[in-house]
Amino acid sequence: MIKPIAFYLPQFHPIPENDKWWGDGFTEWTNVKSAKPLFDDHEQPRQPGELGYYDLLDSQIRIKQAELAKAHNIHGFCYWHYWFGNGNTLLEKPFQDVLKSGEPDFPFCLGWANESWTGIWHGAPNRILMEQTYPGIEDIKNHFNYVLPAFSDERYIKVDNAPFFLVYQPQKIPDLQLFTETFNEFAIKNGFSGIHFVATNVSLGWELDKYNFKAIVPPYHHRITWEKKKKFVHSLSSIFQKKSRNKRLQHVYDYSMASKYFLPDSNIKDKIYPAVIPNWDNSPRSGENAVIYTNSTPEKFEKHLREAVQYVLKNNSNHRFLMVKSWNEWAEGNYLEPDKKWGRAYLEVFKKVMDQNEIDPETDK
Description:
Blueprint: E1 2-8, H1 16-22, H2 28-34, H3 59-71, E2 76-81, H4 93-101, E3 108-112, E4 117-119, E5 124-130, H5 137-151, E6 158-159, E7 162-167, H6 176-189, E8 196-200, E9 213-217, H7 230-243, E10 252-254, H8 255-258, E11 275-276, H9 283-286, E12 292-294, H10 298-313, E13 320-324, E14 328-329, E15 334-335, H11 345-355
Helix pairs in contact: 5-6, 10-11
């Protein structure tokens, strides 16, 4: 049975660190609202629909999000989790509120976004705001104890009693085996069968078993090595350059053409959890250095989604997860939440396709 899990960004509430770095009241909405069109027919700024410019410290917003997701056959959220080492965290409050309050009653898991925060999206790529560190074994134990209350929650998504834990950049962890072995050891001591580790941003040939990982979410579309598709990429880019007055934009592609390459070729399909991508445009963050897909529509997304569903159904694994990139990454133009232009159309497409295929409506305990 297919279990769609949507990545969930918590940066929609003010924190002191962002106030200091970017100005009072900074949230993800700051970049979204200030976005400018960079070429003819460029759809910026994007505007939210029925949920508005919300603050995730509002519990009613979080409940409404979960109700929308559940009604449209999303199985759960993968909350991005920030642990920088030595107990340093950021943006933790919305999820901690979810954990403490018991609301919303909706499945979830965690994705460790293990990378340093820099000023890359704001013209200062060498400015380190919060450095990702890996202090050693005691920090690994402290990290596990920090996430243990989440793992122990009845809503937490588990596979054969192993908490589903995604790691954004596993290859950046200096002693990856020590990390996974320690988490597995502590998980077993706490009554679990281990950790269901899932990797992103690794090659399809990466040695999962060596590092105790169970599956890969393939590299996000704009980070895929395009070696075999250079002709495709260059031709799209050159077509765009002829139409655009902005010659500095180098990564603008048509969604329907690019989406043909979102699903990877691989002989380890039983260990791949593919990601579906409704759209992408991170120009609100990165301006002219953005990767932009143009002309996405609910109908084009439906075609991509159906292909992804078939990819999952051909999977020999009993764990048929489909990742959704993303629920609410608005500054990347990458969201399923209702917006002003399309309303719930993308969500309705998602529900329709999943209704026509096997889904698991219940939490995997």
